[in-house]
From TrEMBL:
Leader sequence segment: none
Recorded GO MF terms: ATP binding; ATP hydrolysis activity
Record keywords, A-Z: ATP-binding, Nucleotide-binding, Transport
PROSITE patterns: ABC_TRANSPORTER_1, ABC_TRANSPORTER_2
Ranges of residues in domain ABC transporter: 6-236
Domain of life of the organism encoding this protein: Bacteria
Keyword Nucleotide-binding in annotation: yes
Descriptive protein name: ABC transporter ATP-binding protein
InterPro entries registered for this protein in UniProt: AAA+_ATPase (IPR003593), ABC_transporter-like_ATP-bd (IPR003439), ABC_transporter-like_CS (IPR017871), ABC_transporter_ATP-bind (IPR050166), P-loop_NTPase (IPR027417)
Amino acid sequence: MTVPMLSAEDLGKFFLSGDGRVVRALEGVSLTVREGEFVCVVGPSGCGKSTLLRILGGLEHPSSGRVERRPGRPPVPSASFVFQDFAVLPWLTVRSNAAFGLRMAGVRRRRAEEAADEWLRRMDLAEFADGYPDQLSGGMRQRLALARAFTTGSPVLLMDEPLGSLDPQTRRLMQEQLLTLWQEERTTVVLVTHSIDEAILLGDRVLVMSARPGRLTDEFAVPFPRPRDPGIQDSPEFGRLRARVWDELRGQLTVHAR
């Protein structure tokens, strides 16, 4: 994993509040995400994690600094996003939701739906292809959101708390499924999460952001080999790394609470 896929240099993002004040969301953020790497970002609420993700994916422009996608090579096609609220379209069937990204990219319906059906099968949703999202549980809707993202074939997947609204048991199952899928596909992933355990289980690196304005304060390499067994969460090594990340994050949370 030596070829850069995403590169951000000295990013800043500023907003005007309703009363005209300047709100600094990000300041001086630089990072490189290598091709096929799974990078997780943790930090206090409101520290700019989601803003960073949107800038990396081109949904927002930075106020300062720059982002390069696949620097030195042809640019990356649009990144795929997965959000906490699933963002599925209730008036479309499960199959049409899964095919939506490809259809918006101009792919013919039959080809898009064939690709969607393959991912619905892999997500154990094939039997619901002709149904609608309101017939699915929360975990199933999130699997549908993941199927849609993977169906596009984009080499970059950006995920903003994708499992945050699930109950603990469903979240654990989804973490294991996402881990398996990534190890099969090796898509470049940036995941924003509030869960340190989730970040360590899934990621190659864990980045910690400060309280607003968001800066990257530390980086932790995850030492566990791939393919990765979810059982590592019970190991002493996992616990020690969790404690190190928490010590850094706790410092940022303390600042944020003042």
